[in-house]
Amino acid sequence: MPTRSLSARLLASVSILLIIFFGITIVLLDLLFRDLSDRAMRERLELQLRTLISASEEDPKAGLAPTLDRIEPRFSNPGSGLYGEILRNDGYPAWRSDSLAGTGLEFAAQLKAGEKKYHEVHSGDGSVAFSLSMGIEWEFNNKKTRLFVFSVAESLEPYYAQLDRFRVQLFGGFAGVMLLLLGTLAVLLRRLLSPLRRVEQEIEAVEAGELTEVGTGYPRELLGITTNLNALLTSERERLARYRNTLGNLAHSFKTPLAVMRNLLNSSAVSDLPIARQLDEQVGRMDDIVKYQLKRAAASGGTGLGTAPVVVSDALEALRGALLKVYIERNLQCELHVDEGCVYFGDREDLTEIAGNLLDNAFKWARTRVRLTAQRTSKPTGRRDGLTLIIEDDGPGIPATEHDHVLERGARLDERVSGQGIGLSVVRELVQLNGGVVTIGTPDLGGARIEVRLPPV
Amino acid sequence: MRVLVVEDEKALRESLVEQLKEAGFNVDAAADGEEGLYCGREFALDLAIVDLGLPKLPGLELIRKLRAESKKYPILILTARDRWQDKVEGLQAGADDYVAKPFHFEELHARMQALLRRSGGWAQPVLRCGPVALDSRTQEVTVDGKRVELTSFEYRILEYLIHRAGEVISKTELTERLYAQDFDRDSNTIEVFIGRLRRKLDPDDTIKPIETLRGRGYRFALQRESG
Fold first, then answer.
1. Is the bond into A399 cis (omega within 30 degrees of 0)?
2. CATH 1.10.10 at A6-162, yes or no
3. Structural domains for chain B
4. Interface test with B, best of A250, A256, A291 (most B CBs within 10 A)
5. Cα distance from A250 to chain B (closest Cα, Å)?
6. pTM
7. What pLDDT, in 10s, does the model give residues B79-99?
8. Phi and psi for B30 in degrees, rounded to 5?
9. Please, are residues B148 and B132 in contact by the beta-carbon 8 Å criterion?
10. For residue A133, which of A215, A42, A67, A203 has the smallest C-alpha distance?
11. Does the complex come out with an ipTM higher than 0.95?
12. How far A453 CA sits from the closest chain B CA (Å)?
């Protein structure tokens, strides 16, 4: 299962980081703002209280009352949000501001002289105000003293409204900054990761056989990967070529003495001796074993990475031409049906070997016709197509009971009926090494029908 | 028929040359690609047998060079590398057939016969001209169905003439194709053999199979019937 992309991971981590950072900042700013507002309000209330106290004078009826034109006019406007009260120690209000009308606000009642108290007061209709009350020992002109509680309060609604506004602005601002940051980061990442995307594209091209290796000019951090990848591709190709060359040399150096032996055994001096025939048979067996094992060993069975895909029609057309030349006396018709643009993502030599052996058999046995069909078998999941080869002839065919037998492994070469080529066993081995299957089917043409399915690699 | 063998393995080359001579061929041998190229260029050959893994000049290159110089004689590849890729490349380079090592001489011989026959324009193994029939497989010659006994050299002259039936073949060409280099090249010997052939094929002097064209050579005059 593929992990999420690097940029997605980075963006997610950065987003989480930003949210934590901004969250803490918002909380801190909010606290600071409320603290400042709180202090400002206390100062304002203090001022109002002093003004109220200094504006108050003896009143014959209630005892004390402020001179109205010396205090804020807002005290006189109902619903202004600024309230005041002077309470006598017998619980009877000496003065209540007009603005208090209908609010039902209650202030602190029992305070000693010089005692100050801030508190939140709630009215019956749900409005909230912040109040400052202070006990004052008032000395009348007749030298008598009496305890009064002076209270002022300010509605908290404007404060809350301001706080809400502040919070909206704060959140909005930070959200905007965050989006901007993430956007910039995404653009930056895109440019930063573009070499990685290039590597990906070039590896795809290598897979498709459009490139033999990934390019150069990568940033230092990626050079390790690209250089090693190229080295791997090159060494893989060279290894196969070297390996095949070695096997070729081995075949050559092994078969030349066999050829000499066979020729000597065929010479007129000894060819009639029974031992010459027996030895010749052994030479044949040795040849078969060498042929089979070397062909099997030479199979690439690989992915064909970094090599151009084999153009199937070219490879098969070349084989067809070669076989028509060799079997010219058979006067056969050889039809070739290859799907448009059919390519094989694998090794050219493997394909040639598989098709060559099968076609050779078909040419050997056919009466008049050989038909070779190549189809691409696309797989919805892969980018590469597989290949199906169908080789048919109108010869005597292969009896159903023999189907398994002719595909037998080379390990059982000893059991083979002599004279029957090792072609099919080699084909089976090569096809299996390339992950495919060989089936012998019921033919349209009346003879043998062999189907080879090579999967996409 | 003059045949060139290009094979680097000495033992194989020598035994092959021996067997080919026994089979009645006039054989030249070369041990490497360059020598093979020289022989292929300079000699009047009817066929060349070329090993692919040759020192100095690879067999494929040798074949390409000979074909590029318009050498038309058939070329048979003899190879230990029997991958299809190699076979296809060899045939594309201009070879006409291949035989994988180790081979049975009979198979090689049969393939050579077929190539030689085809290069003379014959499709069937039995070459028929009028009443004369030559079976290249059994090396039997019949006239009107009656077998004619020929010596090996007489057979080789007749084979060559029938192969190229209708064409004029000079005495020099016959000598070159049929005698080994170290042979006595007296052209009178050819005349003697032609005379014997005429007597054996046509004792009553009625069908006149071999024409003499003064100063130019001989021609097998009977009409080809098959092929």
1. no
2. no
3. 2-119 (3.40.50.2300), 126-220 (1.10.10.10)
4. A256
5. 9
6. 0.68
7. 887 788 889 999 999 999 999
8. -135, 145
9. no
10. A42
11. no
12. 20
